[in-house]
Amino acid sequence: MITHPFKSTVNRLAPLRECACAAVASLAALGCATTAAAQQASTPAPTRDDATGAEAAMSSVEQGRTPIEGSYEEWRQWRLEKRQEAFKDTKVQFNLRTYYFDRNMFDGSESEAWAIGGWAGVKTGYFFDHLALAVTGYTSQPLYAPDNKDGTLLLKPGQEPYSVLGELYGDIRITDESHIYAGRKGYDTPYINRNDTRMTPNTFDAYVLQGQAELDGGWGTLKYGFGYFDSIKERNADEFVSMSVDAGATVKRGVVTAGGLYQNGGFSFGAIDYYCADIINIGYAEAKMEFPLGGDWKLRLAAQFSDQCSIGDNLLTGESFSAHQFGLKAELPVGRALFTAAYTAAGGDANMRSPWSGYPGYTSVQVQDFNRKGEDAFLLRAGYEFAGVEGLGAYVLGVLGTSPGEAGQYRQDECDFNLQWVPPNGCLKGLALRLRYAVVEQHGGNVDNLTDFRVTCNYTYHF
Is the peptide bond before 5 cis (omega within 30 degrees of 0)? Predict the structure, then answer.
């Protein structure tokens, strides 16, 4: 799928055994090996340059076969050159990640763990100008994981370690602007995305066509994507399961997606549909516009709409349902600061769902999504990039929710604080340190406040 909404980060793996060392060693052995491809974005992986996976195209000539054109020296020389270029353009990338997570729930229970792991990946250049291959292995190993504090999603259920071949795909380059991706890969769209907020991201077994076209006369750019998603590997899993099973059904169904994004200067409009037969249909649309206010000031406005409903035999819940959410957002950059305000309103006869991704709502924050039926939410956020330390930034936000329409549910508010340092240059380039803290207050139900504390350290190296 496309990544803005469809972004694979569009212009962005059979389990590896035991521990992180095993994962890295296994991938290193692949060397210049293969790496399959799927959408451009993907993959915490890296196979990704930081982006998303590999790009490529396929040749119909089998290995060991020689077409008649190969009888000529010019053809032979071209093949050798292109093969050499593909090996030369092969990239290897390693990511070391350690993550501490501690959450105290409304009922007083606690989820806590500290894990280490990450991923290692290989991405080839294009063989014969058309086919690139990519492979990425992921692992998460416990450093501190009490059995009675499960639920962090840093490890498998039961605080167990895992390793998995999360990406294994091929990228068939039809043209410079049009690619087919096939195999296991990470994607980034509103309702199917990597949701990379723990040790490893979601990845998908899928077949995707992505491309873009520059419209004549300077009328902007049209980006498009079509795909079939068969299965998903969740963030803390080492197996791929059917998309419908992951959503909560007992039958196996895949998801058909189609969408497009039009961009012209500061204006954009995109829409994408996700269809899972007999399970759920999700439609998403978003528009953005930029308004110059004089000088360097530019007001950015955005609106979004999500619609969800049961379809066919209603095999997800056993009965029909319908839900929707509307959102508005305004952003104003002022020097090194960014001020944001947002509003969302959820309606229908069910809560909104997001089975294969992080939720895309404007008021979805560190802990809560504020997408229960009948729930409105208001967000205020201020971010700042410090001048004295390159790459150091922080933000604070607050979300005020209203009472949802479901009996037994209560109004909630959330306040988040984030501090992140990503040195852009020097010997520490590739390092990312992040500290996050959230408090959720529930008004009713005689519960404690929920607190959520996270510390992550990533180091990415590629050659």
Answer: yes
Contact status, residue 48 vs residue 42, Cβ threshold 8 Å: yes
The ranges assigned to domains in the chain are 1-94+120-277
- Can you list the positions of beta strands (E) in 349-410? 376-385, 392-401
Task: Tell me the residue type at 445.
Answer: G
What pLDDT sits at residue 80?
Answer: 60
The tokens for 121 are 């990946």
Compute the chain's Rg from CA coordinates: 23
User: How many alpha carbons fall within 13 Å on the CB side of residue 300?
Assistant: 14
Question: What pTM, to 2 d.p., does this model score?
Answer: 0.81
Q: Are strands 110-123 and 267-276 parallel, antiparallel or unpaired?
A: unpaired
Long-range contacts: 329-335, Cβ < 8 Å, 24+? 329/301, 329/302, 329/303, 329/304, 329/362, 330/299, 330/300, 330/301, 330/302, 331/299, 331/300, 331/301, 331/302, 332/297, 332/299, 332/300, 333/296, 333/297, 333/298, 333/300, 334/297
Share of the chain residues as helix, strand and coil, in percent rounded to the nearest 5: 10, 50, 40
Task: Specify the pLDDT at position 88.
Answer: 82
Angstrom CA distances, 339 to 189, 298, 326, 382, 383, stand at 25, 12, 21, 5, 7
Distance CA 179, CA 130 (A): 9
User: Dihedral through CA 432, CA 170, CA 211, CA 2, nearest 10?
Assistant: -50
Q: If the chain, 463 residues long, is cut into consecutive pieces of 10 residues, what is the mean pLDDT of each piece?
A: 38 38 38 36 36 33 40 48 74 96 96 98 92 97 98 98 98 94 96 96 97 92 97 97 97 97 95 98 97 88 98 96 98 95 97 96 97 98 95 97 92 98 94 98 94 97 89
